[in-house]
């Protein structure tokens, strides 16, 4: 059956319009392009917002990327595509709230708080949870900014890190039972990592702080036995012991009369023990790192033992 000419022309224009609407901008990867609606984006984000990212790695979406970062990217694309509708208020509260949720899970607390603040200015049922989220993000940001100055004494540094920990622990007690508990546990761990790293840096310039630096790393490991980063912390402590042993060899040559094998062996033994422990753990990249570090450190020890004289 042959269509009339006018109908054929209309069908052709409709087809061209449909093809144009399905086309994607060439600069945007297809897997991050906007979707027909926001339901898909929000449902994926909502599915993982309660995940315990303190004990387990963040989930990955179908692209293999961090689900929170990928969701944020898709929400931004959604904003670009439907800018006119959002300007009229259509789904604006949903988009802003979802972006805030994604931002807080990638530690962009300042941006998350700003998005929550915008939601609070709208007529939306999300105002109350946005108010809670904005308050939590603001307090986490304030606590994370507590850091000792380079000129502070070790005692002052410990006091400041203690204040930071106290603020986070107080907030953790208030949000227990929500997904923010996982976020706060991660921030407490990062505080302990920052404290240990700060004293490791100080010990590199002042050997009198060696014991204090080691104590901070040992406290980090003791405070976070269930962390997904526990093997990373063991590796870092092994690196610290290895660094102390190498520094000792630089300062006191193995063939010299002042070289003390017991001092060297104390550092070297602990580094070797930690590298060996992590190298036997399956399922993580830390195992590969530990194997390589152990091989390199054993080669270093062989050189030292070859140069020194037995006593």
Folded structure, characterized:
70% of the residues lie in helices and 0% in strands. It is an all-alpha fold and 311 residues long. Among the domains are: 34-124, no CATH class; 229-311, no CATH class. α2 (39-48) runs antiparallel to α3 (67-81) and α7 (127-144) runs antiparallel to α8. Mean pLDDT is 88; it is low at 1-26.
The gist of it:
With about 300 residues, this protein is mostly helical. Helix content is about 70%, strand content about 0%. The protein has helices at about 5-20, 40-50, 65-80, 85, 90-105, 110-120, 125-145, 155-175, 180-205, 210-225, 230-250, 260-280, 285-305.
List its traits.
13 helices, mainly alpha, 311 residues, single chain
The N- and C-terminal alpha carbons lie at a distance of 105 Å
Poorly predicted runs are: 1-26
Q: What structural class do helix, strand and pairing data support?
A: mainly alpha
Average pLDDT value?
A: 88
DSSP helical segment count: 13
Topology:
Blueprint: H1 5-22, H2 39-48, H3 67-81, H4 83-87, H5 92-105, H6 109-120, H7 127-144, H8 154-174, H9 180-205, H10 210-223, H11 230-251, H12 261-279, H13 285-307
């Amino acid at each position: 059956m042959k269509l009339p000419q006018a109908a054929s022309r209309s069908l052709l224009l409709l087809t061209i319009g449909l093809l144009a609407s399905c086309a994607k901008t060439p600069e945007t990867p297809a897997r991050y392009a906007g979707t027909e609606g926001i339901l898909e984006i929000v449902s994926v984000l909502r599915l993982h917002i309660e995940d315990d990212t303190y004990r387990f790695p963040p989930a990955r979406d179908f692209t293999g990327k961090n689900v929170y970062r990928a969701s944020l990217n898709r929400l931004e694309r959604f904003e670009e595509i439907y800018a006119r509708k959002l300007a009229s208020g259509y789904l604006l509260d949903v988009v802003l709230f979802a972006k805030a949720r994604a931002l807080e899970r990638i530690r962009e607390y300042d941006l998350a708080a700003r998005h929550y603040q915008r939601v609070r200015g709208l007529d939306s049922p999300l105002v109350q949870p946005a108010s809670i989220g904005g308050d939590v993000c603001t307090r986490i940001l304030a606590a994370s900014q507590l850091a000792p100055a380079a000129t502070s004494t070790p005692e002052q540094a410990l006091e400041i890190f203690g204040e930071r920990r106290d603020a986070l622990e107080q907030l953790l007690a208030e949000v227990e039972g929500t997904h923010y508990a996982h976020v706060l546990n991660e921030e407490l761990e990062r505080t302990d990592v920052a404290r240990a790293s700060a004293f490791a840096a100080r010990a590199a310039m002042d050997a009198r702080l060696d014991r204090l630096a080691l104590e901070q790393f040992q406290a980090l490991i003791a405070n976070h036995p269930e962390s997904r980063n526990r093997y990373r912390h063991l590796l870092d402590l092994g690196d610290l012991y290895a660094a102390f042993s190498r520094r000792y060899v630089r300062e006191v040559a193995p063939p010299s009369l002042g070289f003390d094998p017991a001092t060297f062996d104390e550092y070297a033994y602990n580094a070797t023990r930690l590298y060996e422990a992590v190298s036997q753990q399956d399922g993580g990249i830390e195992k590969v790192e530990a194997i390589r570090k152990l091989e390199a450190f054993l080669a270093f020890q062989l050189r030292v033992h070859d140069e020194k004289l037995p006593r």
